[in-house]
Each structure stands twice: as structure tokens, then as C-alpha cells.
Design a protein that fits this description.
- The complex is a heterodimer of chains A (408) and B (314).
- By secondary structure, chain A is an alpha/beta fold.
- Chain A folds into two domains: 25-137 and 288-359, D-Maltodextrin-Binding Protein, domain 2 (3-Layer(aba) Sandwich); 139-286 and 365-407, Periplasmic binding protein-like II (D-Maltodextrin-Binding Protein, domain 2, 3-Layer(aba) Sandwich).
- Chain A contains 18 helices and eleven strands.
- In chain A, the strands form three sheets. In chain A, strands 1, 2, 3, 6, 9, 10 and 11 form a seven-stranded mixed sheet that branches. Chain A has a two-stranded antiparallel sheet with strand order 4-5. Chain A has a two-stranded parallel sheet with strand order 7-8.
- The longest helix of chain A is centred in the first third of the chain and has 19 residues, at 4-22.
- Chain A is elongated and about 110 Å long.
- Chain A starts with a helix and ends with a helix.
- Chain B has 13 helices and two strands.
- A two-stranded antiparallel sheet of chain B has the order 1-2.
- Chain B starts with a helix and ends in an 8-residue tail after the last helix.
- In chain B, a hairpin with an 8-residue loop joins strand 1 (57-58) and strand 2.
- The chains are: A alpha/beta (408), B mainly alpha (314).
- The interface between A and B is medium-sized, with 31 and 24 residues.
């Protein structure tokens, strides 16, 4: 009897020690994103669900401004040694800092990786390693005015013929009042779409030489040049020209759909949606948007693990579908495209059906460390063609020379 | 401080800081200067010297500051045609906007110095352009310059002028920037010149009137010479500021440097090589900023030595 009480005390003590030893250490992580209030409410909802599922992880979310602002903050954070744990960046901002990132692909199964749309996963891959997860994406489609166009064009030739037909001088003052389409000088993505559709590439397979000025590149750029007389060439958004009744159709990102619809309503027009006209090889257009990454710098092992769990949670089909339905983005995985919430959302919606179909054949940007430089040069040379300061061949040769310089 | 100066002149004298009475006299002075010096040190001097150092490296965000490459960044920018174009654009911008703004400011200051009705609201309205945030001003001017619907083309249309593509035509882009800049800074410079005008003793004008001097003679022989301190100040400040123009360019041309980079100034070039557009060539950007510093330094030195002799202080 004398030893009973001390024995019980020892047993209770051992039990308590065991419980404490197995209890999870509390971890705090920081998620820096570029989603404004209209979108961040959905992030907050997902974060709340995540913290409910993982009560030992606290996620602090922060709106970091535009994608450029977030990129600057992340870069500054890396240099200072205190970047956020998880963030949202464009692919070209990710590639130069891969040494500071957790290779996320190693934490996803092969089935999970195979579920990501291939063209999009490719742009998240650097030297064969997946460093980021595609998250909030948009795809380029054809918008057209149903009051002026009965059947949308499906090929380059049809697009050209229609643009020519629709370019009109309405009041016969020898000034064009409405153009068939629009070409925006600071947006070389339209040229990249055409280059992809004609089977061309910016660089050769091993990235040692520029191929943009070969026959396929020239075919794409000459097609752009042929559209100039039937396009308004300007820096504003397509919706601005649409609202001013100055254009009839254009290829643009799905993320701008609500602005385009609003602009069309301003002039009493109804907007139609279609896949972008197909080129000689395919009809794919560029997938744009940001990816999620987990930073390797300034984080404890526990924080990195928590960050990985957070990204995996955000990539679950139902969560991707939730965010995309509410945020007007396109799900980047087949499972989320087939998710019942997304399917219901797409439903009878013409726009969403077209966007979903386009997403399945989309391609991502070239994932080269110097892609920002490439794009900078592409803007310059593309603009020279649109403003007729250079011929397509000369512009492409100059572009190839720029690329060669960056490859050095 | 006089002990310190004396020691600096005659170093064989005993060091003043070893004398306790020196600290009694000057300790408080150093204490009052300390906060400003610390802030200047962190936000001005350290970045200033860091830029020089950074210009010798190929920047790496992941392993800062990167690889030492000597003068390779300078070699790159001096062989980059866009650097020289940015330099030319900057000189065109400075050469046009500074004297035009100064001339208009003189005119406005002269008008504001008259005894007219509604003078106070006029002064406020001129100064409003300067105190309104530059982003807001640039955004409004972006719409005013709109090719088809802008106010400017609408007004020019009354006089039979065809639509001008201010922001989309490379021939007009720099002019559009200069007009915005002149409009923005005229008020600020006019207020400073007005203060100078109002400080000129009336006896000079009275004497000139007695001697029968014409209006132009009074302006040339009395007003301008006695206004030279303010003109000199405004000239130096506006020259230095003009070399650093960036925000107006960035907002006016929607996040770019204009059609065919026609309004790309040196600071815009520096930002483009750096974080703008995600290029992060910080070494090259630093090298270009060192070159900009050298140019502004030479210009300011020139102003100080050559034009200073022409400044008449009362």
C-alpha cells in the first residue's frame, strides 16, 4: 500500500511526458500573395480550412501588392534572409531564384504531377526539377462581337479575312472608325501564340542558340505584319477600345472576361467566345498567371514542411476549383477541371466552356533563367514591327541577336 | 568647433578632442546632429557607396552581391545602344523642360507680382499642380493625351489640328512628357521667383523711373540681376531633378517608356535593367546610376563655378 501512491504518481507523470513528447510543435508560416480583397477573401477561407485541418500550423497571409511588388519583396527578403514561407510568383520570376526554393515536385506523387496540364507543368520545371506549383492561371481565347460576327474564325486565314472585312470607315471621312482587331505593342504574347501555333520556338532544344528568326518565326511575324492595316495599334486594354466601339474581335486573356463583357454592354453588344484561331500546327495559346513556391531561405525545417503541406492543400482539386470558380481563374489540373464544383460552374456558360477547352491545350512560357530579358527584347522588337519601324525579318534577326547575347 | 578648425589648420597643435572642455562646448552640437547623420548615413551615404561597389559585381539574388566582374558592367552599358539613347533622351528632356519651365515661371511670377484681382486663388492654382501627387497628375494627363478621346486633341481640333497620337507615336512621346513636366513645375518655380521679386527693394524701381528707364530696361538691368539668386537656385534644383525623371514616364506611358522606348530616360533605363520587368541586373543598373551621378555632379559643379559669378546678392 505504501508504494501505491508513488507508483500512481510515476505512471501519471510518464503518461503526461509521453503526451507532451508526441504533441506537434506550433509552427507559423507567412503566405505573401498578390490577390486583392476581391480574391483574398477566398484565400482567407481556404487558409482557415487549412488551419482547422492542421491546428499546429498558423498561416499569416499578406497582400503584397501587384505581382511585380511581390517579386521585389520576395527578392529583397531572400537577400535579407527573411523571405515569406510561401508566395505567388510568375514563372520567369521563379527560375532565377530556384536555388532559394524548395523543389516542390519531390513532395508530390507522380500521379499528382501527371494530373497537372503538361504545358503548364513544363513551365514550372527547371533542369528537370519541379520547383513550383501552377495555381491561379488564365488562358488566351478569342472574344468577338456577336452583333458583327456570326461565325467566329477558326483559322489564321479566316481571322485575317474577317479583320479586313470588319475594318470600316463608318462616316466616310476617309478615317477608319472601327478596326477588325487590335494589336498591343507591349504584349508580345500574341506573337508567342502564333509562334507556337506554327510550330516555332524561341530557342533550340538545348538552349544554346536562338531559333526565333527561322522560317517558322518569320511566318508568325509576317502574319502579325499582315494584320496591321486592319488593327488598331495602341497601348490601352482591349476593353477600352471595345467600349469605344473601335474593335470587333481580339485574342486576350480569360482573366479579363468581366471587363470585356462590361465594355461590350456599354455599346449594347453581346460578346461571344471561341478558341483562338488555329495555326498550321495547332490552336494552343499561352497559359498565364502565377505559381506557388515554398522558400528555402530563412525558414526552419518545420516551417518548410508546413509550407509544403499548405501548397499541397491549395492544390487539392476541390480547393483549386473553389478558388478558380470564385476568382475567375482556370484550374491547372485535370482533376480540378473535372471537379463537380467547376463542372457545375461551367455548366451552360459558353465562356467557361471555351476557356476550359483552351486550358487543356495551353502552353506555358519558356522557362529559361533569362526569360525576363527575352521578353524585354520581344516587347521592343514586336513593337518595332507594329509601328512599322522594322521589317519582320529585321526585327527577328535583331531579336535573335539579343537572345544570343543573353545566352552568353 | 573653432578648436577643431584651428587643429585642422595646424595639426601640430594638441588634438582638441582630448580636451574635456571641447566636449563641453561641442558635445551637444554632435548630439543634435546625430539623428540626422544616422538617418542620412543609412538611407543616403550607405546606398550611395553601395552602388559603387555593386557596379563591380554580376548580381545574384540568391548569393548577393554575386560575382566580382570588375568593370564589365560599365563595358556593357557603354556598348548598349539603348543606354546612349536613354542618355540622349535625358539631355533632350533636360535641355527643353528646364529653360522653358524657368522662362514661363518668370512670366507667371511677374504677372502674380502685379496688383490684380483674384491674385491669391491664381497663386494657389499654379502651386496646386506641384503639390498634387505626381502619380495622379500623370494618370490624368494620360487620359488628356488619349488619341481619340483626349481633351488635348479635342481642343486642338477646334483649330483644325488633326488627331495627334501623343502617347503612341514616337515622334510626340517626348514632347508629351515635356509638356506635362513644364505644366507641373511652373507653379513651384514661379512661387520661388515671386518671393524673390517681392524682396527687391522698391527704391531701385523708383530711381529707374526717375531716370526715365523703359519697362524692358528696368526688367533687364534691375529685376533680372537682383533676381539671380532665386533664378540660380531654381535652375540648379530643376536641373538636378530633371535628370532623375522616372515616375512621370512610367505612369504616362502605362508602365513603359513610351512607343519604341522614345521617352526612355536614364533613370528609366536604370530601373529597366534592375527590378522593373524582373530583370534584376543590379550590377548594370548600379553602373548606369554611377554614370548618372557623374553627369549630374559635373553639371552642378559647372553651374556652381561658372554661373555663380553672375549671381548678385543684395
Amino acid at each position: 500500500m505504501r508504494i501505491t501512491k508513488p507508483l500512481i504518481a510515476v505512471l501519471v507523470g510518464l503518461m503526461l511526458f509521453g503526451l507532451l513528447a508526441t504533441a506537434q510543435e506550433q509552427v507559423s508560416i507567412h503566405f505573401l500573395h498578390a490577390m486583392k480583397t476581391t480574391h483574398s477573401v477566398y484565400i482567407d477561407e481556404l487558409v482557415a480550412q487549412f488551419m482547422e485541418e492542421y491546428p499546429y500550423i498558423t498561416v499569416t497571409t499578406e497582400y503584397g501588392g501587384s505581382y511585380g511588388d511581390v517579386e521585389q519583396k520576395v527578392n529583397a527578403g531572400i537577400v535579407a534572409g527573411n523571405p515569406p514561407t510561401v508566395t505567388q510568383l510568375y514563372e520567369n520570376a521563379i527560375t532565377p531564384i530556384v536555388d532559394a526554393l524548395v523543389p516542390l515536385g519531390e513532395h508530390f506523387t507522380s500521379l499528382e504531377l501527371a494530373d497537372v496540364i503538361p504545358g503548364v507543368l513544363e513551365s514550372a520545371t527547371v533542369n528537370g526539377i519541379v520547383y513550383s506549383m501552377p495555381w491561379n492561371k488564365s488562358i488566351m481565347i478569342l472574344y468577338y462581337r456577336k452583333d458583327l460576327i456570326e461565325t467566329p474564325p477558326t483559322t489564321w486565314q479566316e481571322f485575317y479575312d474577317l479583320a479586313k472585312e470588319l475594318t470600316v470607315d463608318l462616316n466616310e471621312d476617309e478615317q477608319i472608325d472601327r478596326w477588325g482587331t487590335i494589336l498591343r505593342p507591349k504584349n508580345p504574347e500574341n506573337f508567342l501564340n502564333l509562334l507556337h501555333q506554327v510550330g516555332g520556338t524561341l530557342l533550340n532544344e538545348d538552349w544554346t542558340a536562338a531559333t526565333v528568326n527561322d522560317a517558322k518565326g518569320l511566318q508568325a511575324m509576317e502574319y502579325v505584319a499582315s494584320l496591321i492595316p486592319y488593327s488598331i495599334v495602341g497601348p490601352e486594354y482591349e476593353s477600352d477600345y471595345l467600349a469605344a466601339d473601335q474593335i470587333c474581335m481580339f485574342i486576350s486573356t480569360s482573366a479579363g472576361a468581366k471587363y470585356n463583357v462590361s465594355a461590350a454592354e456599354t455599346i449594347g453588344a453581346e460578346l461571344g467566345y471561341a478558341l483562338a484561331p488555329a495555326g498550321p500546327e495547332n490552336a494552343g495559346t499561352m497559359v498565364q498567371g502565377a505559381n506557388l513556391v515554398v522558400l528555402d531561405r530563412g525558414q526552419t525545417e518545420a516551417q518548410k514542411e508546413a509550407g509544403i503541406l499548405f501548397v499541397k492543400f491549395m492544390m487539392r482539386p476541390q480547393n483549386l476549383a473553389y478558388f478558380c470558380v470564385n476568382g475567375n481563374y482556370m484550374p491547372p489540373t485535370y482533376a480540378s477541371l473535372a471537379n463537380k464544383d467547376w463542372v457545375t460552374f461551367v455548366g451552360e456558360d459558353e465562356a467557361k466552356q471555351v476557356m476550359t477547352a483552351a486550358m487543356a491545350i495551353g502552353f506555358g512560357p519558356l522557362n529559361h533563367p533569362a526569360y525576363s530579358d527575352f521578353r524585354y527584347s520581344m516587347i521592343t522588337r514586336y513593337e518595332e514591327v507594329l509601328l512599322e519601324a522594322s521589317t519582320p525579318q529585321q526585327a527577328l534577326d535583331d531579336l535573335a541577336a539579343d537572345f544570343e547575347q543573353y545566352l552568353e | 568647433m573653432s578648436k577643431l578648425k584651428a587643429w585642422l589648420k595646424h595639426p601640430r597643435m594638441p588634438e582638441p578632442w582630448k580636451d574635456p572642455s571641447y566636449w563641453k562646448e561641442t558635445g551637444w552640437a554632435y548630439l543634435y546632429l546625430a539623428p540626422s547623420l544616422i538617418i542620412l548615413g543609412i538611407f543616403v551615404f550607405y546606398p550611395f557607396f553601395s552602388a559603387f561597389r555593386l557596379s563591380l559585381f554580376k548580381w545574384s539574388t540568391v548569393n548577393p552581391p554575386g560575382t566580382f566582374i570588375g568593370l564589365a558592367n560599365y563595358h556593357y552599358i557603354f556598348h548598349d545602344k539603348y543606354f546612349w539613347r536613354a542618355l540622349v533622351h535625358t539631355f533632350v528632356y533636360v535641355g527643353a523642360s528646364v529653360p522653358v519651365t524657368l522662362a514661363l515661371a518668370l512670366l507667371v511670377a511677374n504677372l502674380l507680382n502685379k496688383k490684380l484681382r483674384f491674385l491669391s486663388p491664381a497663386r494657389v492654382s499654379y502651386f496646386l499642380a506641384y503639390i498634387t501627387p505626381v502619380v495622379a497628375v500623370s494618370m490624368v494627363w494620360r487620359w488628356m493625351y488619349n488619341w481619340h478621346f483626349g481633351l488635348l486633341n479635342h481642343i486642338l481640333g477646334w483649330f483644325g489640328v488633326d488627331l495627334i497620337n501623343w502617347l503612341g507615336d514616337p515622334h510626340y512621346a517626348m514632347l508629351a512628357l515635356i509638356i506635362l513636366s513644364v505644366w507641373r513645375y511652373v507653379g513651384y518655380e514661379a512661387i520661388i521667383l515671386l518671393a524673390g521679386l517681392q524682396s527687391i527693394d522698391k527704391m531701385y524701381y523708383d530711381a529707374a523711373m526717375v531716370d526715365g528707364a523703359s519697362g524692358f530696361q528696368v526688367w533687364r538691368k534691375i529685376t533680372i540681376p537682383l533676381l539671380t539668386p532665386q533664378i540660380f537656385f531654381v535652375f540648379v534644383i530643376s536641373l538636378i531633378g530633371s535628370f532623375k525623371v522616372f515616375t512621370e514616364v512610367h505612369i504616362l506611358f502605362g508602365g513603359s517608356s513610351g512607343p519604341l522606348r522614345a521617352a526612355e530616360t536614364l533613370v528609366y533605363y536604370i530601373m529597366s535593367e534592375g527590378p522593373l520587368g524582373g530583370r534584376w541586373h543590379m550590377g548594370r543598373a548600379a553602373a548606369a546610376s554611377v554614370v548618372l551621378f557623374a553627369i549630374v555632379f559635373v553639371f552642378t559643379l559647372f553651374q556652381m563655378t561658372v554661373t555663380q559669378k553672375r549671381v548678385h546678392y543684395q
